[in-house]
Amino acid sequence: MILRYLSLIVLTVVFIMSNAYDIHALEPEELFSETAIVIDTKSGDILYEKDSDRKMYPASITKIVTAIIAIEDGDLQEIVTVSKNARNQDGSRVYLLEGEQLTLEKLLLGLMINSGNDAGTAIAEHFDRSERAFAKRMNTFVKEKIGTEDTNFTNPHGLFHPDHVTTAKDMAKITNYAMKNDTFREIVGTKVIDWVGEGWETTLYNHHRLLWDYEGTTGVKNGYVPESGHTLVTSAQKNGMELIAVTMNASSKYYSYYDTMALLDYGFQNFTTEMINKGQLLADAMGQEYMLAKNIYVAKQEDDSIKLAVSKDKQLVVQIGNEEKIKEDVLVEQKKNDLNPVPSKNTNVSASIELQVEKESNFITIVLVFIGLCMIILIVSVFQKKRRRKKMQERYTHSIAYSRRSRN
């Protein structure tokens, strides 16, 4: 019996500790990276974050921006001529030669699979003749098209510069935007390619190891310079849900991978993505109606309820559990139909009075008709009585005359 009780106590302690580990697995002190975030791609909702607004040095995850700009603004079959400046670029390379000519598409593969800094410089100079001018294009792009708030780029590859900064939150937004482009998605999901260049022939293996080591990974990019530590951006899919995780400034690439897998596991195990269908009508505090103009997505935990409301700024407020999220530019104000105004209380009262008057008028008409009929019947009756009396007098007179004649 004592052994039975002891085994029960041990099992209880193990259960409590295992649950405690699951619950606190993503506490900030448990992550090795200085800042981190994981978001749901469909809704853009943040599932977990650690100091994700802090400005950090991004290193080579900068190349995500360079690549999506080149894809959107360029022609992948354009021929790019490599400059001396690109040839002499520092850091990781695909060993381009000065004067070498290759397509923009091939440069993008070298940029994203082998993290070629020389490819990044060649792309920047192809578009804007210099890294500085291309950096202005990058900053305009991420601010105006994506809505970043704390990002500033000074080059296309991520080599250290004190003013070259971003945040985990901004990088999650940038990556979520880029992954909606099929070409970008295909490039960053490529594991292996054969590289045949004028200065280098080899097989390139994607530097992002989770493409092999974490089931469902679809990209995106890793990075490292001494000042930034190890940075990593990852996208993964499971059961119809896609997440993006960003980790910044881990002291080892293995720590950045560990943190990323923990973030992804947490997201997939605890959240689902649900769609709220367009066409729903909502009213603000003043009674003005709005229609949901497009389908929206929300990420929620199993027991979370979803409530919708309209803010003072005419934006959709989605309350998920105890947390409120603003979804901008999804509501359309409903105009009142002037041809068919909604009846007011006064209108209803007026209609009621008119109906009552109409009923009373009908009653009086019926009474008058009834009285008229009665009078007609009375007159006819009096006339018939007089006629009958006259006939009776005539008969009486005739009978007297007849009797007198009979006697004679």
Automatic annotation (TrEMBL):
SUPFAM superfamilies (alphabetical): beta-lactamase/transpeptidase-like
Annotated Pfam families: Peptidase_S11 (PF00768)
Transmembrane segments: 363-383
UniProt superkingdom: Bacteria
Record InterPro entries: Beta-lactam/transpept-like (IPR012338), Peptidase_S11 (IPR018044), Peptidase_S11_N (IPR001967)
Keyword field: Cell shape, Cell wall biogenesis/degradation, Hydrolase, Membrane, Peptidoglycan synthesis, Signal, Transmembrane, Transmembrane helix
Boundaries of every Peptidase S11 D-alanyl-D-alanine carboxypeptidase A N-terminal domain copy: 27-251
Family: Belongs to the peptidase S11 family.
Name listed for the protein in its UniProt record: Peptidase S11 D-alanyl-D-alanine carboxypeptidase A N-terminal domain-containing protein
Organism per entry: Sutcliffiella rhizosphaerae
